[in-house]
Specification:
elongated, alpha/beta, 4 domains, Alpha-Beta Plaits, Beta-Lactamase, Udp-n-acetylmuramoylalanyl-d-glutamate--2,6- Diaminopimelate Ligase, Chain: A, domain 1, 5-stranded mixed sheet
Length: 489
Amino acid sequence: MPTNLTVEELAVRLGAGAEVSGPVEARVESVRIVSELSDIDTVPAGCALVLTGAATAEAWRLERALRLAWERAVACVVVSRPDAFGAEPAALAERLGLAFVVIATDVLDATVRLSAIIATDEASEAGTLAEAARGFGHAVLSPHRVIETLRRLLPDLEFALVDRGGAPLAGSARVADLGEHLVDIPVPFPDKRAPARLLAAAKTRRGSTGATRATALTVARLAAAPLTGWAALRRLDAYEHAARAGGVLAELIAAGGAPGQKLRARLAVLDWPLDVRFRVAVVAPGGGRAGVLDELMIARVADLGVRAGAAPFGQGWVVCVPAESANERRSCAAAADHLAAPDPRLDAVAVGVSSVFQPDEPIASAIDEALRAAQVARSVPGSVLFAEGLTPAAALPALLGAEPDEAARALLAPLLEVDRDGSLLATLVASLDHSDRPAQVAQVLGVHRNTVTARLERVRGMGIDPANPSHRLAIHVAARRVLDAQARP
């Protein structure tokens, strides 16, 4: 195993202020500082040659020093930025096959630091592991901080943290898409049964050697602990502070089905099942949302026995559950029944469940569907209604109840969303009032008969068909209530 740092590893230890050009594979055995060209004849091979004074006083002197350094087979030449004389010396070093390092600090300070680095890092792998132990010594580090530390420690590798579905949470998306990885270790959040994964791939052929792989595996395992601690604290935060979970949901709605890496990492910690097909359940209490509802929902979501993302939303709660199995409808119904179970501390709780949505579809659409179903389900205490079951016949009890306006708007939502001038609603009500006689409806509305026919065709295209005998009464009641509500001051 090599026993010295490479030029590249040495530059990494120096920090962001060091700029390296030329080949960086050479190993550095010592450090020597010279100020006269004649002194270069005495430097040993494999050293980091730091130039200062007369050796860098003029451009031609620096170029001469580079040629002499190449003849002595030094590992690299180090100069301060003011002594670099533009791009020509770096280009010459490139042609010579010599590593050229430009530093932002004073050369004397750099020499002392280089000597200290080499003295304490007699073996590059041991030095990397020691640096990793210091870097990952914190109990909690965010995914972004962990990836940045890994890149600094192992510059030949690229890293990515991905969720259980393979979507990147931090780091390089390119690494996540590769089929084979130099490093692939589990990071147990939200739990050990379906962990996230920390992946690494080599940037160059040199980065895939056996020694590099062994070091990378050890370093990556050190990184797993602070990642797990970060995830545990975020999950605990969300459970204890409903408002923070609500903030995550607000960000997710704003993302429109395409959450960024940081938001995706937070969702993975909270176990939101958005990497698979999903349904959304909206829990709507009889009264306004209170602390007891937050406490109850946190407990019930934890008891569901399936992956579930949950957060407060308006007066109630939103719960997202997976819909990927063959019997998903049955499992979603069982989850909804559990969420809607009566509790003596609350008024009646109703639950509306959306249809199945794909992973890349915006959750806002699913929430709208579930909310409409919940508004209708509220007419029967403790009831659950799936969006597929939101038919006029199912909505009729709610329309005839004490507070029917919300149910009416929910039933006619597809029409109301596009009916900007109210003409479609007015035509629907007039048609129902006059037993579907287009000529009479046209006379009442003051429009041509063909206009009435076209409008009713649009309404039927939205799934609202007054010709269906089992739906007609509910549609008539709902449309009349909405129209009357619009007419009220």
